[in-house]
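User
Please review the sequence:
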Amino acid sequence: EKASLGLDEIREQLCNTMDIKPFSSPYKIYLVPEAEKMTEAAQNALLKTIEEPPEYGIVILMTSNISALLPTIQSRCLTMEFRPLSTAVVESYVKEHCQVPDYQARATFAQGNLGKAMRYAKSEDFIERKDHIISLLRHVEQMDLSEMLAVIKDLGTRKDEVRDYIDLMVLWYRDVLLFKATRDINQLLF
């Protein structure tokens, strides 16, 4: 849940323990979730380890934003991209594991990202954030420059939620475009 993954954590939990051979397996596997949260210093410390790992050492950096990783890290890694899960799979998993009703699964907003769907389902203020963004987007044309700057400043204070806000904006515009395209096609056909 930390905003960043620092140098000391990478050194203590990964770099300094990599030389210890595995006890009951041929491999020692390290998973670094949300690797984009590593500071530049942490990434530089990790660089030597991933350049010359022991034959039993495997480091898996998981990220939803590969561009946040240093180019030197990216060039030394094998990149595997995973496709989003279907909305039905995400919704089923969230309902079962988070014990939430259908309307609270919010799988559509997660765009196939199981972790995001689970976070949204557990969030008490998700609906408020969604409504805030939709209201903002509906009224953006009537806003003057000072109002827009105030909104941007407000979003800047919510750094942990900025990605969620941007995702909701993208979904809203996508839905508007799909609605307009469908309406236009229907007008042409009928």
